[in-house]
Design goal:
about 140 residues, alpha+beta, 4-stranded antiparallel beta sheet, 3-stranded mixed beta sheet, 4 helices, disordered N terminus, eIF3G_RRM, RRM domain-containing protein
Amino acid sequence: QNASSGTTGEPSATRWVSKRVQGGSSGTAYPGDRGASSRGGGGSGPYAGKNNDMRRDEATVRVTNLPEETQEQDLRDLFTPFGSLSRVYLAKDKTSNTSKGFAFITFNEKKDAQKAIECVSGFGYDHLILKVEWANKPQNQ
């Protein structure tokens, strides 16, 4: 696998730069990227509804060490290649509207969430190294 410089939105072995940071609004983050998910993902908090909370919790990952400039669309662009997303929640400061440095990403399938954890954790994002783990760590496994 050839690694690029990571500054053009093309895949690299260890780094990804959002389209917004690149200054462009077109192109793809990864080959085969399906773009933003058109399914749900809205809501005003980490859990906008109480339906299927158990299933939702099983396929939710927590992403930490995000830059302040991160936007919800950046996260959709980064995680959609791993599978269909049902929800993206980016924690933001109420006064400055900047990222607090963490987010929750919910996939429709647990296997897709697992793939994202394996591939994105330790990945260079803008100027930081991301940490991706299960949102609710299993108690008895």
